[in-house]
Structures are given as C-alpha cells and as structure tokens.
Amino acid sequence: MRDVLSVTAAMAVGALLGAIFFGGLWWTVRRGMSSEWPALWFFGSLMLRMSIVLLGFLVVGQEHWGRWLFCLLGFVLARPAVQWSTRPSGEDPSRSAPEAGYAP
Question: Which of 1, 23, 76, 86 lies at a 20 to 30 A Cα distance from 33?
Fold first, then answer.
C-alpha cells in the first residue's frame, strides 16, 4: 500500500511539474512575442522552468527509479492537458492548419 501511495504521489507531482513547465512555456510565448527583448524572456523562462522541473524530479525521485518513471509519466501526460486547456475556444482540434503560401 505504501508503494502505491508513493507512486501515485510521484505521478501527481510530475503532472504538477509538467503543468508548470508547459503552462510557463505557453505564457512565455504569449508574453515574449510582444516584448521588446524576446530573447531575454525565452532564455530566462527556460532557465527558470528547467530549474523548477529538475529540482522537483530530484526531490521526488531520490534514489527510487520507480518514482522517477512515474514522475516522468505524469510530466509527459501534463502536456496534452495544458495544450487542451490553453487552446482558443473557437478552435476545432480535428481541423488541420492551413498550408503556408509562398511568394513567387
């Protein structure tokens, strides 16, 4: 029972770390594109998001490889959840993106 609880907690923390990472990426893209210094936004955000995620993985995983795996699984599963929650309300997910036109 104790292992199930620790694995579930590791997966939940991994999902939280993934939400922080991918939600922070979404926020950075929206903020950085209208900024005067977009490179500073993107680099600073990357360093902050990576530091948070790596520290979280180290704290959760410690010396147990099972916790590392379930934390990673939660992290990966957070990506589609963040994509779904941050898409524009009128967007049809089954529709493909328009093809880019090229100048002659």
Answer: 76
Domain ranges of the chain: 2-86
Pick from 65, 83, 84: nearest CA to 73: 65
Distance CA 17, CA 71 (A): 9
Eight-class DSSP state of 100: P
H-type helices in 1-104, by residue range?
2-32, 38-61, 65-86
pLDDT digits (tens, 9 = 90+) for 70-94: 999 999 999 999 999 888 876 665 6
What is the rounded (10 degree) CA torsion for 39, 41, 45, 48? Answer: 100
Which has more confidence, 97 or 82? 82
